[in-house]
What does this fold into?
Amino acid sequence: MTDEAIKKRANGEGSVFYRKSDDRWCASLTVVRPDGTTHRPTKTAKTEHGARIKLKEMKRAVAKDGDIYTSRLTVAAWMMKWFETDVVKELRPKTAASYKTNITQYIIPAIGTRLLAILTPDDVRKVATYVEAKGLSSRTSASAYQTLSLGLEAARKEGKAPRNTADLVKRPRTKKAKLALLTADDAIKILYTVAGDRLGSRWAAALLTGARQGELLGLELDRVGDSLDLSWQLQRITWEHGCEGACDKKQGAACPKRKITIPEDHEVRHLEGGLWLSRPKSSKSWRIIPLVEPLRTIIERRVEVARNEPNPHGLLWTSEPDRIAGGGYKDLDGRPLDPSRDNKAWHAVLDRAGLHDARLHDARHTAVDLLYDAGVPEVLIQDIVGQSVLSVTRGYKSKGNHAQLSAALTSMSALVNPLSD
It folds into this structure.
């Protein structure tokens, strides 16, 4: 016997040959993928007969799937590789963080050991079953499914899997969220409740503009005048380890070489800790809202106060002072308002006003409802709240020029203006 092929099929039919180096018989077949690229997978057997059987199996695989998948790549290995090479470089940090949560907390625990090449629809369904067993919402199931589907589609395109198996499974249905609606009277109660608060203007802005939390918390003094320039938003971005496992720190923020991966087309500015200013995700979100009464007067008062407080980042609203153990408060230091503390403060305001509990995001729905009640055209509401799709704006209910937007906001504010009494 020699190392050379002793038996060959016609060109394109594959070949069977003996390999002396490891005393194995080999079946090899040139495969032309649907995209025109080629590769030549090889499978081995102890005997020539076994190799010929392998060759027939390879041909059947090509006839069925258009390719041969010999990789022992698992779902866990592929999803993490896809995340590290594609997701973090293409998506915004907060979006990428949600993908990582889906991968590490739901997909890998449920089906991480399964091989990509033989993944079944039942395997895909196991992810939703795993999420539901943890008592999590249908929205979490749907989000995990979407992440898995995108990862499997990338695997298919790169020739790592014969198909996107998630395409064979219906996306988990999500329950429609029940909104805790705040009425115009509720909005008036909130405005009266926070009138004397240091940050009462922050809640007035939420109710009278419909702006998102990050858009308001990221407002800088030099972007406040006759209008609110919502061209940046405050976000908390999770730090990653940059030490490649060398440090003993559990959290990425504590790593001596901590890093944050930012896509090249994503503009950000670091404030402090994990808080950053970032550009809105769409051009529709990047907008200027006219300031009208009563918000104009409320904001002007806050601007005057903010210019005389410690304010290293020049923000319109800054954090309340921390409590001191044993009583009292620390001095103001001008730190940005942390989104989680901001959420807690909102629920405390509702409690003080004697209102039912509601998400901070529901204040955005309230603003949309008020705009509708004031007779503002949908296209102007869409511009005011920064929705890119009109159907989404409609979903918030139970491109005008500056003058049109100002008139629209004036009409809406008249419904809840406590200064008019």
Remarks:
- Residues 186 and 212 are 19 Å apart (CA to CA).
